[in-house]
Design brief:
Length: about 60
């Protein structure tokens, strides 16, 4: 296992108004952005806390 698990924080478009459709979008639609995206990271084998950060997926570096 990895020390951290992480993923992008889903942003559901405002154009989707049906609650079930919003749940589906949140669960399955990933933007797979090329660039800076906001992510949530969970420190599995450390402090077991969530941290929110911004990562540039092109260079795999954390920015600000
Ligand atoms: Zn930690």
């Amino acid at each position: 296992m990895q020390e951290f698990v992480y993923g992008e924080i889903p942003v559901v478009p405002d154009s989707i108004t049906d609650p079930d459709a919003r749940d589906l979008d949140r669960a399955f639609m990933r933007s797979n952005l090329e660039g800076v995206q906001t992510e949530a990271w969970f420190h599995v084998f450390g402090c077991r806390r969530w941290v929110r950060l911004r990562r540039d997926t092109r260079a795999d570096v954390v920015v600000d």
